[in-house]
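To: structure subgroup
Subject: Chain for Friday's discussion

All,

I'm putting the inputs and outputs inline so they're searchable in the archive.
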Amino acid sequence: MDTTKRYERLLERYRNGDLERRTFLGLLGAAAVTAGVTGLPVSKLTRHAMAAKPDQVRFDGWGGVVSEAFREHAFKAYTAKTGIEVVDGTFGGADEYISRVKASQPGEFNIAHLSGVFDYVRYHNLELSSELNEDNIPNLKNVITALQDVLRNVTGGTLSAVPYDYGTTSLAYNRKYISDDEMKEKGAKLLIDPAYKGKIGGWGEWKTRIWYGALQTDQNPNAIEDMDAVWDAIREHRDLALKYWASGAELMSLLAEEEIYVTEGWSGRIKALQDEGHDIGYYDPPGGLGWQECLFVLKGSPMEACEELLNFMLEPEVAIAVAEGQNYPPALDPTKVKLSDKVAALPAFDPTGTLSGLNFFDPPYWNSNEAEWSKTFGRVQKGY
């Protein structure tokens, strides 16, 4: 009992910042030895202590202007406030990142900027989800309820992530070569127009290619009836395209350098190009794709530190600054939080906070077809 009380007092001092980590561990070890405690119990106490106040939290995101916005407007201030360093990595795609996580040790990766409910389901099904203590994230009350509910439905009412932003994957085009009227007339079928062979791009991600293949064959992407027609449209696009792009930075470069004239693209990246002075149009076709992104806390992470970071990032001032930096609307409910004029002017922004005008992947439908469709797309991508 005396050892427990002594440990609790040391832990309280450490959490309050009164003790450096090395000093705390030394005192912890001395207290244990004095009490005759050795071996495994001491190591358990040490792990408990490190979980209570880690030196760093790892965050992985999409790179480019998105990661720059997180670093500049959230991570620096969080570290200054808490003393906990945010080590941020990047990834080019969701499949690449999940492969790295599955090959890692528990706790190696902490928070990921995941795209869509689809990924939330995947991580949960792989038993990589955690359970957030929402009492430690009071700013969650300001987040759009609809974005929270779709996540709660997956994890039995709890959350393993907080919604953070949303946007669209719609059609970007160079106005020097393609008029607004032509884009509105042809919509998604402009991506398979032979007139632009060699000047067409596309994201090399199976879900997006299938979604647009469905639109190009006049089908509902969440209830495809003729999959053969979709694969044919994907092959047609593949043969007309200059290349598939693999990152937001590559997307922006291809459009800015006029290597391609038309592609589907992420709303925030296209807004960044427009802000740089490029005459790039952006059009949401009927059935265009909407998505939300969340900050997902992986199983085995230091929960209190992660929850503190999530709450900090949901502070209205921080979330708005990040939104303006990355050009994606924040997940904050505009009926509860006053957002800036710049945020209100972003592509895909919904002033009602309902997101009723956006089309999203239906998670059960797409997850149930993932194994077959992703494998087939891999073959089609290689020329089959």
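Points worth raising on Friday:
The two ends are 69 Å apart (CA to CA).
The beta strands are 56-61, 85-90, 111-115, 161-174, 200-203, 241-245, 262-266, 280-283, 289-297.

D.
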